[in-house]
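Internal tracking record. Fields below are filled automatically when a chain is submitted to the structure queue. Please do not edit lines marked as system-generated. If the sequence contains nonstandard residues, flag them in the REMARKS field before resubmitting.
Queue: standard
Priority: normal
Entity type: single polypeptide chain
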Amino acid sequence: MTTTPPATPPLAELERPGRGLGTFLAVSFGLAWAAAALLWVRGVRLDTTAGRLALGATMFTPALGALAVLGHLRPFRALARASGLGFGGARGARYAALAWLVTPVLVFASIALAVVLGRFPLDWPGVSAFRAMLEAAPGGKVALARMSPATLVALQVAVGVVAGPVLNAVVALGEEWGWRGYLLPRLLPWGTWRALLAHGALWGLWHAPVVLQGYNYPQHPVAGVGFMVVSCVLLGVLFGWLRLASGSVWPCVIAHGSLNALAPAVMLLPRAGAAWDTAEVGVLGWPGWLLMAAGVCALVLTRRLPSPFARPTQSRAHPVV
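SYSTEM-GENERATED OUTPUT FOLLOWS
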């Protein structure tokens, strides 16, 4: 006999009186955009150590937004249950393992598709661009004397696959607890699909200030904002499915941490001096969009979307659509 998880109140009913969705958006967007503006005013480049530290800090702003709304819940298990901080038992473990295994496949399949379509100048096993980077870096020639560039790349990728989700878990949780822990369930009373698409679009817009400064899509700083929204809507549906199906944010944290660890690997693989466009390569490029859209279609066709586990959290006034 199939069992249904016990119903929990919609998150809107658990918010502190006088606060809610507006507070979450004001905190998460306000703090992140203010930090990005400060970097721009001070002329701090995003590819410097200070820029990277600032970007890492902004990843916690969605969690601060969730805390501003739900921080009054006591005891902690009430907060954890309401926002998916629990591990979800055996079901959560299964989806966490799925996220750990499938995310690297998505990352490298999106690069492979770009290569097949002639949009990425892959240089393997030569990795001449990476070799040039090493030769210019302090100690790089010593590393090259010990092992080949291809071996170094393979080791970095292996570490990213195995340890990336753990190493990036803290900062990934900063985003996931906000977007998938709080916002997605908060929007569910308006329908699962509306919630999935809307929370993904908001997630994409949240990235706008750094994208405008050349992050993610350096060749398209303005159009890149739209590209990022498309990427986050598609990722948001897939990550959102993990959240709803598992009852936990941790599978999303694993997927997000793995993505952050492995997506930069594309920078190690091209031919030295060759031109290529980040909008045409990788998960955040249109080859990645095609693969993610195919994944969403597969979930729909196999009736895994919309997730049945989303239904117990809905209010009666707003049925799932």
